Amino acid sequence: MPVKKLQNVYVGTADMAASRHFYEAVLGLVPRFADGERWVQYDAGGANFAVGSVEEYPHGAAGAVAVFEVPDLDERRASLAQAGMRIVGSRDMGSHGRTLTVVDPAGNYLQLFERAPAR
User: Which residues form the VOC domain (predicted)?
Assistant: First the structure.
């Protein structure tokens, strides 16, 4: 089953205020969504770019994290496990959806995201 789309790419920060100042005042990105000091997502010319707090960033990751939207996270988890891929975490984000954090063969962290069903 193919990936639906690249949902976003994000970086981690220990200082959300400084990061927001840089991305908004210096680079001119416009916030699309913010969750307090945990997460801010920007419209970057039709693509999503986000900054996540230390709590949102996968433990052990370094650099940017790509998030790919998939239609069925459980099916994808099974196929990744069968392929011997390293799965390092999962998270239920309630009404937003669920994520699965995996490590690719080169050691890069990425996340698969399944959107929550519309209510």
Answer: 5-115
pTM for this prediction:
0.83
Is residue 37 within 8 Å of 53, Cβ to Cβ? yes
Calculate the dihedral angle through the C-alpha atoms of 16, 118, 68, 99, rounding to the nearest 10 degrees: 70
Parallel, antiparallel, or unpaired for β 39-44 and 97-103? unpaired
DSSP code, position 55: T
List of domains in the chain? 5-115 (3.10.180.10)
Q: How many residues does the chain have?
A: 119
How far apart are alpha carbons 53 and 117 in whole angstroms? 26
